Amino acid sequence: MSDGTEPAAFDAADDIDDAAAAIRDGALVVYPTETVYGLAADATDPDAVAQVFEAKGRPRDNPVSLAVPDVDTALDYVDPTDREERFMREFLPGPVTVVVQRRESVPDALTAGSPRVGVRVPDHLVALALLEAVAPLTATSANLSGNPSATAVDELDAISGTAAVVLDGGETGGTGSTVVDVDAGTIHRRGAEADAVERWLEEH
């Protein structure tokens, strides 16, 4: 997280390199964010994305978001309106998922065929280090569908056994991201910073 709560002993160079290599090989990685632990795969690889759905037992018609290290990188994969981009630059990085128009490089497997996709820029040092090494990644909680989200490595359920690498970033914030469609002015899921998101939508 941006407040520097990661354990000092975290060996970023080795662990991030191992995780990035696993993702490039098509494998899954568990990684921390400022909200909950996430399950990462190459978001542009339909086969890797399919592994995420299979590992979670998630219905294929329930889209998964993508994570990137910054808004500029996001623009390689999505095509936001001017208003949406202003919102993204206001709230990202942070615990907010912004639903915007996707580009052709984002596969149907990720969005269940929808022309729009959720975008996350986690405000967490470990997550950002991983995303600087390899992006975009899937942004979905590292748990079996229907199970509680994990806020620490020792809370991970059986899904951790499907990951090639588990990055331990200590305890996370615990409150899921707020999911917002800025164009529609709709908050699909209230989570962290929901009140601030709502105020921005009203004022802009």
Explain how this protein is built:
This protein is an alpha/beta fold. The protein has one domain (12-203): DHBP synthase (Alpha-Beta Complex). 30% of the residues lie in helices and 18% in strands. The chain has seven helices and nine strands, in the order αββαβααβαβαββββα. The protein has a six-stranded mixed beta sheet, with helices on one face. Strands 2-1-7 form a three-stranded mixed beta sheet. A hairpin with a 4-residue loop joins strand 8 and strand 9. 46% of the residues are buried.
Tally the structural domains: 1
**Tally of extended strands?**
9
Helical fraction: 25-40%
Instruction: Assign the CATH architecture.
Output: Alpha-Beta Complex
Strand order of the largest sheet: 6-3-5-4-8-9
What oligomeric arrangement do these chains adopt? single chain
Described by strand count, sense and barrel closure, the largest sheet is: 6 strands, mixed
Helix and strand element order = HEEHEHHEHEHEEEEH
CATH homology-level superfamily: DHBP synthase
CATH topology, what is it called? Answer: DHBP synthase
Q: Summarize model confidence as the mean pLDDT.
A: 93
Which spans of ≥5 residues are poorly predicted at pLDDT below 50? 1-10
Helices, by number, come to 7
Computed over alpha carbons, the radius of gyration is 16 Å
SS content category: alpha/beta
Globular, elongated, flat, extended or rod-shaped: what is the shape?
globular
First-last Cα distance: 28 Å
